[in-house]
Design a protein that fits this description.
CATH class: Mainly Beta
Helix content: 10-25%
Radius of gyration: 15 Å
Distance between the termini: 12 Å
Number of strands: 11
Largest sheet: 6 strands, mixed, barrel
Length: 145
């Protein structure tokens, strides 16, 4: 069984940026779908605004990518959903200030979540560029009758 999510595209001269809805902290937000990201990463300050920092754990690893290197990474367990796919997992948290600056400079939408290949591959994501949809395999759910 699969869940289907709508995708929104923002086109710039350097290509397309793909967004979908994520439900977290009981609200819907936009998340960047990044097929080139090894792991999903959430905005550290945004998560701290909703949870505080007592559940955050500094990781030994550092992140790179998105025009910066050696970014300190934290982790915490979060519950969120993409369509009907529900997740409760440890996620990487990074400082998004450089990402926000870069996207603002290019006139792109601000976001707080990057959905990477840890989620896309594990849930056998299929992106259909023609219909502007993405489907994810639902695990552990029984089909509706």
């Amino acid at each position: 069984m699969r869940t289907k999510l709508n995708l929104a595209f923002q086109f710039k001269e350097n290509g397309a940026h793909i967004f979908t809805d994520i439900t977290i902290f009981r609200k819907k937000f936009m998340a960047l779908v990044d097929t080139g990201a090894t792991s999903s990463a959430f905005d550290l300050d945004f998560v701290k605004e909703h949870l505080g920092d007592k559940h955050l754990h500094l990781l030994d690893d550092k992140a790179g990518g998105l025009g910066s290197a050696d970014i300190l990474m934290f982790a915490t367990e979060l519950k969120f959903s993409l369509g009907e796919a529900k997740f409760k997992q440890n996620v990487a948290l990074i400082d998004y200030s450089h990402i926000h600056q870069l996207y603002e400079m290019h006139g792109l939408q601000k976001f707080h979540f990057i959905i990477g290949n840890d989620i896309l591959v594990n849930n056998k994501a299929i992106i259909n560029y023609q219909t502007k949809t993405m489907s994810l395999e639902l695990t552990g759910l029984k089909p509706k009758k």
